[in-house]
Specification:
Elements: E1 13-17, E2 26-31, E3 34-37, H1 44-47, H2 52-55, E4 64-66, E5 72-74, E6 77-79, H3 86-94, E7 124-128, E8 134-140, E9 143-148, H4 152-157, E10 167-169, E11 175-178, E12 181-184, H5 187-200, E13 214-217, E14 225-233, E15 236-243, H6 246-252, E16 265-270, E17 273-279, E18 285-287, E19 294-295, H7 301-308, H8 321-332
Antiparallel strand pairs: 1-2, 2-3, 4-5, 5-6, 7-8, 8-9, 10-11, 11-12, 13-14, 14-15, 16-17, 17-18, 17-19
């Protein structure tokens, strides 16, 4: 049984797992219902099953190793599971940059960007967290994510910013060098880094269409079309591409995984038709008079793309200004 070491107020908790047959005691990490056992010989990437580092719950360690006796080397410090206070010490190290606070220090003084930040929000905002470490927030339409300095490279991988030529982060996070320009970990450095990111690393305009759901003709697909859209999970953007199929439509209308459609919208392929329905609260399905059954082999990719992006089907929060205006006009009519 794990030996519990209660630590109120912490996000990651650590205990000691003991097993039969003289198995060495091992450290166990818990975050809510997620649990990770630090097995010997495995690196952090192999052990981070729940993507804690990617989700920003924990910063990826600069150095990490688990020895055969269960001893853990973490960021230059050694923790022995047989030591009485090792679990608490490791827990403090893991949570060193994630301890909650009851108050927020004043943000660095700066001019407000706009009285309506949603209208012209810059792609990046940089501030100091409650432990005076740089935190980078990135915005993309209605999407938002944030990360520490060690996660900055992932923003480029996930399409939140352009790819820098070089990134160097001081091991103690006292500064960051981005394309050879150095920014100190202080209020002035945060302000300069924000300006630098917004001037040089705003993501490139997409070469795809303005529609969030794209349809292309593909004679190899059973329906004759390919579909392309994006979902965001745990702050990470995933591109969904492939043949237009019921599996892709199921993902598109799963409101827990994708917010492009209004809740209750149903899309069903029943050759040779595409049916559009709405599910009522009692579980019954009703036909929408604005959308007759579509014989998809008789329409073009452009027709089908316009249909799937129709403002009466789409989630208002994900619509472009033009689509929002069209939705308002349709409701008035």
């Amino acid at each position: 049984m794990p030996e519990s070491h209660p630590s109120p107020g912490r996000r990651i908790s650590v205990d000691i797992e003991t097993g039969p047959n003289a198995q060495p005691p091992l450290f166990g990490l818990s975050f809510g219902s997620d649990r990770v056992t630090l097995f010997p010989g495995k690196g952090w990437i192999q052990l981070d099953h729940f993507k804690w580092a990617t989700r920003g719950i924990i910063e990826a360690p600069q150095s990490f190793a688990v020895h055969p006796d269960g001893t853990v080397d973490y960021n230059g410090q050694t923790f022995h599971p047989t030591d009485a206070h090792a679990a608490l010490a490791l827990e403090e190290q893991l949570n060193r940059k994630h301890l909650p606070t009851t108050h927020t220090p004043p943000a660095p003084t700066r001019e407000p960007a706009s009285h309506h930040p949603e209208a012209h929000h810059p792609p990046f905002r940089v501030r100091l967290d409650h432990l005076s470490h740089i935190l980078v927030e990135a915005f993309r339409g209605s999407e938002h994510t944030e990360t520490g300095l060690r996660g900055l490279a992932h923003l480029a991988v996930d399409g939140w910013m352009r790819q820098p030529r070089s990134i160097h982060i001081d091991p103690l996070q006292r500064y960051i060098e981005l394309d050879g320009v150095r920014f100190e970990n202080d209020a002035d450095g945060a302000r300069r880094l924000e300006d630098f990111l917004n001037q040089h690393f705003a993501p490139l305009p997409t070469t795809l269409s303005h529609n969030a759901i794209e349809v292309r003709e593909n004679s190899a697909a059973s329906t004759g079309f390919d579909i392309h859209f994006s979902i965001v999970r745990a702050g990470t953007r995933f591109e969904i591409k492939g043949h237009l199929s019921q599996e892709k439509l199921d993902l598109l209308q799963d409101h827990e995984k994708c917010d492009l459609f209004q809740p209750g919208v149903l899309l069903r392929i029943s050759p040779p038709h595409l049916y559009i329905r709405r599910r009522n609260h009692d579980g019954t399905e009703v036909r929408l008079p604005e959308f007759p059954d579509v014989k998809y082999r008789s329409v073009t990719a452009a027709d089908l793309e316009r249909l799937l992006n129709h403002p009466l089907l789409r989630n208002p929060a994900t619509l472009s200004p033009d689509q929002t205006a069209a939705a308002a006009a349709a409701n008035v009519a």
